[in-house]
Write a structure and sequence with these properties.
The chain is mainly β. It has no helices and 18 strands. A hairpin with a 5-residue loop joins strand 17 and strand 18.
Length: about 210
Amino acid sequence: MSDILTIQVMDAQGITSQAQFIIPFTNTPVITTASPLPNATQGSAYSTTIAASGGTLPYVWSILSQTGSNGWVINSSTGALTGTPGVAETDTVLVQVLDSASQSASKNFSLQVVSSGGTLVLHQDGFPLPAPSAGVGLPYELGITVTNSTNLISWSVVSPAITASFINQSNARTIFSWPSPTSGAISIVIQATDTVTSNTGTITLNI
């Protein structure tokens, strides 16, 4: 594509002259999908689609390089990245998109493969163990993060039977919310369950 620019010059006697200039410009494609990609699970079929914008359709997708023990392939027409990983690790995949005007863009993606049948690891956010103290009758909140997951997590209180809730419980991070703690020490066991792999993990909060 190009723009046309018309320039006119006038001398002291009012005589003018014009010329047109063609200014070409390129609209190169840009890969818009963010890295890291959604987690994959060891031994399970995986698919995610890489997207791009700009350039001139249609696109042709390819993998320029990849690291790790797992093999990944990409559909040259749709940008769908697929594979069935056999090793739990973090892979990197360098993806290229080529438009019909032979303009290209590339991007390096990180892709974590989590183990099936493994144990989730839970951490408190911002505080070392033990958990910070609570005020009697005052709302209590504590952030909890889980690793080695697909980021699709279900949260629950294993013990004791207290009235508590979780905020953003579909993510790999949640806010444990206890509306009105009572007096005295209490030990609370919280469990995270990966809804994709069924892996579980617990954390004990001594409040």
